[in-house]
TrEMBL record, chains A, B:
Residues 183-249 form the 3-hydroxyacyl-CoA dehydrogenase C-terminal domain. One of its GO terms (molecular function) is L-gulonate 3-dehydrogenase activity. Signal peptide: none annotated. Pfam families: 3HCDH, 3HCDH_N. This is 3-hydroxyacyl-CoA dehydrogenase.
């Protein structure tokens, strides 16, 4: 497969790595020549780091599959699939999709990494709008495999199918979002939980560290290998319906206290930020992000091994 | 430390294992003599299984630290801490706490495993009410370490401190819930996320399997070793406050669509149940629960190892 990655920032680099790791031939394009030159070096560094942990077999071969192209025409020529990663600005998306649709082979799928703009907002006028969709990754996609696949109303079902098949083939986990909606699935679930988390701290029931402990040493453990529906399906003798019969009343009663749509107040945000800084000084944020990514790598390897052993 | 475990069902057995694994001397009591006799055998089987995975060192020594007592007086004599696990019936909690308060040494802490009844509902009239509280585990506590510690308004701060210190000493992760509230912290967070999950399926955006994939291959990964607050703190250059500045508007906009407090409809529950049964037949539920517990064991070992390597 030949893949064009459009936009060579952090997300573009990560996609280049994901596609090249799976054996695809990748062409990376960016309007900024210096950023483009730098990006290939950064993909190499990333690949070497992943090779050290065992998540990439041969970093040199991987990087050899990534070419940079100064001209968009060169990047798009003969490709099967395009993954776009420009900044989250509607005008930029409109412009680049118009160019991509004019240049790329008619059979190529055109996907955007956007997390906040629906495909319908930048593809309606295009001749090839049926081949356009959103394939929203989670950062960084080489460690977090889920990809939210969401078309506009005019996206062809074959486009959805081909995008999902490609994602599966390269080791990602596509989730089909059947209609456009703000935040897709992942951020809506995150938002629902965060909203209650902020409220519980604001009302004095728990501090930020206690809340994080509740998730990392409790709620988050099962969710890291079975989702919320399978979790409740296994948590009552008769499965999901039995669980809903037993605990639906409790959750409905709780729900009545979870309806505030007030924005998080500046005081609350400042208080939580101060608590975080007491736990982790600002100057240690970068180091902690590196630690987080090492933990994500270790977790990815663990899940690979555990999946083989126990399914 | 001498510990009494009152009620020898699944949760009582699990607590006996957790305390004995940490070297405590455990006395297990149950009003049902047959259940009591069976429970010690089951603790032994559980310990042997955990020993096989490396989460218990010496199953024989562990079980030797668990004694069963036919009389409540024998179980409570000379203990430092009592963990109660009777059925979730207020009258039963009231009766057993009155008996425990009358019999147990004055210095012993009296904790209930209840997930749904606040300590204030069954301790108000007791002479020793200051030493009573809830220590709510997640099932099974030998694999999921979080324990929600929540007192009544009259619970002594030393009682809270001693309970938390004991939980830390035996390898659990206590979270102090500072005021009584329905569902404590964990189930309120779970409820908030489930509510949006049910809604997203009901409105046709995603199916149950896609939603589970979004969590198990996306949202749940970071949450299994850092909580939701640390996750957002690391997800913007300037930390949590920066994150709220960037994405608070998105979450507030989404929140306005997440306010329904309608119960999950029978049709929706039936549809989700049917989808789960298509993925996992009813007769395979038991086997899958065993698989889940093996995965939790493997995850616990992974987290122990990763914690040593990377912190």
């Amino acid at each position: 497969m030949k893949i064009a990655v459009i936009g060579a920032g952090l997300i573009g680099q990560a996609w280049a790595l994901v596609f090249a790791r799976a054996g695809c031939e990748v062409r990376l394009w960016d309007g900024d020549a210096a950023a483009l030159a730098r990006s290939r070096v950064l993909v190499g560094e990333l690949a070497a780091e992943l090779a050290g942990s065992g998540l990439v077999r041969n970093a040199g071969e991987l990087v050899a599959r990534v070419a940079t192209c100064a001209r968009l025409e060169d990047a798009l020529g003969g490709v099967d699939y395009v993954q776009e990663n420009l900044p989250e600005v509607l005008a930029l998306k409109r412009e680049i999709f118009a160019r991509m649709d004019a240049i790329a082979p008619a059979a190529a799928v055109l996907a955007s990494s956007t997390s906040s703009i629906p495909a319908s907002a930048f593809t309606e006028e295009l001749a090839g709008r049926a081949r356009c969709l959103v394939a929203h990754p989670v950062n960084p996609p080489y460690l977090i495999p889920v990809v939210e696949v969401c078309g506009a109303p005019w996206t062809g079902s074959d486009t959805i199918d081909r995008c999902q098949a490609l994602m599966l083939a390269i080791g990602q986990k596509p989730v089909h979002v059947r209609k456009e909606l703000e935040g897709f699935i992942l951020n809506r679930l995150q938002g629902a939980l965060l909203r209650e988390a902020f409220r519980l701290v604001e009302q004095g029931y728990v501090d930020a560290d206690g809340l994080d402990t509740t998730v990392r040493d409790g709620l988050g453990l099962r969710w890291s290998f079975i989702g919320p529906f399978e979790t409740i399906d296994l948590n009552a003798p008769g499965g999901l319906a039995d669980y809903c019969g037993r605990y639906g009343g409790l959750y409905q009663s709780i729900a009545k206290e979870q309806t505030s749509t007030e924005p998080w107040s500046p005081e609350l945000v400042a208080r939580l930020h101060a608590e975080r800084r007491a736990l982790l000084p600002a100057e240690a944020l970068g180091e902690r992000r590196t630690w987080r990514d090492r933990r994500l790598m270790a977790l990815a390897l663990h899940k690979q091994a555990a999946g083989k052993e126990t399914t």
